């Protein structure tokens, strides 16, 4: 078991009947991205979540695999069941090494990493937790014919959302109780409550809506348009060439008689990208995060450092939209390695290769790089 670590189940196996569309709602376009990708980003940004499972329909699997491939954490895909309760259990079974579970609807794309973190921490304290908001309207309990039976006091009513998180043993006990009695539930809190468990609620977010109808998709787009703030960052790095070192650029080892000199592997391209991301998020620079006075960073793989940078950028609430980088080097020819650099950097940053550009240029024999003494790289990025 991974002590106090969560396995996250994203439920994405619904039929989407109320959307009136031929494709699953988690695959629909929301501000230029699939709905599901937003939830994956938010859950991956939570350090307590170790692994994820997406429960989906067989006909959606290929498309969801492509979305999940951009995630920085391990994502398993598993087939859904006849009921939501069955789908969740299918996902749980592939996360058997996690002692806590977090369950989230793939159709709630506006969940934040802060809310995910809050629910996880609450579950560690109470054993069961869910996000919820107070209802704004007066609610009525009605009979089958539509007549009012009761008006519950509004101040005691909460609208429950996902994510919801549970101690694994508690959830499986509740699921066994439900199976033995033949009962099914559409809400995981209700499942646990029916087995005698107590669920603690934390403050949710009114923007954390569930996309069920076309109007919900329009509301989500409006929220994103109103909240989106763009941040631009720039980065620059330079290293001297020397014999006896490997030449590594963008995580790619390039055959050459010299390599770049530095405390880490001196990947000048990865360093420039990292500084651009940190600058856009106002998080300092790589010299501050990974000082060359610390022995643990000697010879470090710069892609691992870049991965940590991306984690911090996402934890600060930012999303990487695109990166544009240029390497300045007189020799060797870098064109044959450009695509591989893009792929390595994209994988590390948790984005697609279409979101990152890498270019190479000489400086016509002029200056530090033109004389072959070293190489430099610059990068700009856009965060939202």
TrEMBL record:
Q: Which cofactor does it need?
A: a divalent metal cation
| Origin superkingdom | Bacteria
Swiss-Prot/TrEMBL site (Positions MEP for the nucleophilic attack) positions: 154, 210
Keywords, alphabetical: Isoprene biosynthesis, Lyase, Metal-binding, Multifunctional enzyme, Nucleotidyltransferase, Transferase
Q: Which residues form the 2-C-methyl-D-erythritol 2,4-cyclodiphosphate synthase domain?
A: 230-383
Q: Which InterPro entries match?
A: IspD (IPR001228), IspD/F (IPR026596), IspD/TarI (IPR034683), MECDP_synthase (IPR003526), MECDP_synthase_CS (IPR020555), MECDP_synthase_sf (IPR036571), Nucleotide-diphossugar_trans (IPR029044)
Binding of 4-CDP-2-C-methyl-D-erythritol 2-phosphate, residues? 237-239, 263-264, 285-287, 290-294, 361-364, 368
Chain positions recorded as a divalent metal cation binding sites: 237, 239, 271
What's the catalysed reaction?
4-CDP-2-C-methyl-D-erythritol 2-phosphate = 2-C-methyl-D-erythritol 2,4-cyclic diphosphate + CMP; 2-C-methyl-D-erythritol 4-phosphate + CTP + H(+) = 4-CDP-2-C-methyl-D-erythritol + diphosphate
Region (2-C-methyl-D-erythritol 4-phosphate cytidylyltransferase) residue spans: 1-231
Where is region (2-C-methyl-D-erythritol 2,4-cyclodiphosphate synthase) located? 231-384
EC number(s)? 2.7.7.60, 4.6.1.12
Function as written in the Swiss-Prot or TrEMBL entry: Bifunctional enzyme that catalyzes the formation of 4-diphosphocytidyl-2-C-methyl-D-erythritol from CTP and 2-C-methyl-D-erythritol 4-phosphate (MEP) (IspD), and catalyzes the conversion of 4-diphosphocytidyl-2-C-methyl-D-erythritol 2-phosphate (CDP-ME2P) to 2-C-methyl-D-erythritol 2,4-cyclodiphosphate (ME-CPP) with a corresponding release of cytidine 5-monophosphate (CMP) (IspF).
Q: Which PANTHER family match?
A: 2-C-METHYL-D-ERYTHRITOL 2,4-CYCLODIPHOSPHATE SYNTHASE, CHLOROPLASTIC
Would you tell me the protein name for this molecule?
Bifunctional enzyme IspD/IspF
């Amino acid at each position: 078991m991974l002590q106090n670590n969560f396995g996250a189940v994203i439920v994405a196996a619904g039929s989407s009947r109320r959307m009136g569309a031929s494709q699953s709602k988690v695959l629909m376009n929301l501000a230029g991205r699939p709905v599901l990708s937003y939830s994956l980003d938010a859950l991956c940004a939570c350090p307590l979540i170790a692994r994820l499972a997406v429960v989906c329909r067989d006909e959606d699997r290929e498309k969801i695999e492509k979305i999940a491939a951009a995630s920085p954490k391990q994502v398993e895909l598993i087939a859904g069941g006849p009921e939501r309760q069955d789908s969740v259990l299918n996902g749980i079974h592939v996360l058997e090494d996690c002692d806590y579970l977090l369950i989230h609807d793939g159709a709630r794309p506006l969940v934040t990493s802060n809310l995910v973190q809050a629910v996880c921490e609450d579950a560690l304290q109470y054993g069961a937790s869910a996000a919820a908001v107070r209802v704004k309207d007066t609610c009525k309990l009605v009979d089958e014919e539509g007549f009012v039976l009761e008006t519950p006091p509004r101040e005691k009513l909460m609208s429950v959302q996902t994510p919801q998180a549970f101690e694994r043993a508690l959830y499986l006990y509740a699921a066994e109780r439900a199976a033995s009695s033949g009962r099914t539930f559409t809400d995981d809190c209700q499942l646990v409550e029916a087995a005698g468990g107590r669920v603690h609620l934390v403050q949710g977010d009114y923007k954390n809506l569930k996309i069920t109808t076309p109007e919900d998709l329009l509301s989500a787009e409006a929220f994103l348009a109103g909240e989106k703030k763009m941040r631009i960052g720039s980065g620059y790095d330079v290293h001297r060439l020397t014999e006896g070192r490997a030449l590594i650029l963008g995580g790619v080892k390039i055959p050459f008689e010299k390599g770049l000199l530095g405390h880490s592997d001196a990947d000048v391209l990865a360093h420039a990208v990292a500084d651009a991301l940190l600058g856009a998020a106002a998080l300092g620079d790589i010299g501050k995060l990974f000082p060359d006075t610390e022995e643990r960073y000697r010879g470090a793989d710069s892609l691992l450092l870049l991965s940590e940078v991306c984690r911090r950028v996402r934890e600060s609430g930012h999303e990487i939209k695109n990166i544009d980088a240029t390497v300045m080097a007189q020799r060797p020819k870098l064109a044959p390695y450009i695509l591989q650099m893009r792929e390595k950097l994209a994988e590390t940053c948790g984005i697609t290769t279409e979101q990152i550009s890498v270019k190479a240029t000489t400086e016509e024999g002029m200056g530090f790089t033109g004389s072959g003494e070293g190489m430099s790289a610059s990068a700009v990025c856009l965060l939202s």
